[in-house]
Amino acid sequence: MTVFEAILLGIVQGLTEFLPVSSSGHLLLMGRFLGVSNVSLGFELVCHLGTLAAVCICMRNDVFALIKKPFARPMRLLLAATVPTAIVAGILSVLFRDALEGSVLVYCFLITGILLLCCGFADKRATEKPMRYPHAACIGLMQGIAALPGLSRSGTTIAAATMLGYGREQAARFSFLLSIPVIVGSSLVELILHGVGSGIGAPALVAAFFSSFVSGLVAVSFMLRILRKHSMDGFAVYLFLLSVFLLINEYALHLF
Fold this sequence. Notes:
By secondary structure, the protein is an all-alpha fold. Helix content is 77%, strand content 0%.
């Protein structure tokens, strides 16, 4: 993998990590388009570390509040969501390895689009309110399922929170905070067990980290602003169109 390819992949990762369109799915697609066959889980997680730094900076007040009061209710809510995430993602990684490599990518894109449309309908009754522990666990469960490429982590968690009656911006902030322990934990596990993949040098990894960091900053700020006034229907339309294109490409065009 060249440094230029790593930068492109890092930009894709950073932009799509917090947009509800599936960063892992788009990273797989970009890798296929570039002809990069070694976009390993380890490389993807290095990009995730860049987006982790981005979300920590954009939400630094929330992060500092959690650090100052590590046993307060907000931290307990994150823990209640993180445990089911880890369990479900672990099960998927063992039983559905082919799906994690993109075998059902187009169908997961379609499911994400449907969830985003459902989020738009549910948003009419959503309000800002204290989050309940069972609801946090349900959101964490959805995040675990979103380990499948094509299922957007941010999209599924925000949609789940909205359908449980929480406002869009509140749902997004919880979703972004919830990404922090998940990215840290999964990054450590995958890098220890699988490394970063053959043929990926240190310069490419550094380039991927910084490009995903910068684009992640843009994506977090954009999402927090847009969700204050707008629904995610536009992202759903994009995913439906992308799915149609991928099906046509698979059966007719064979572009990549």
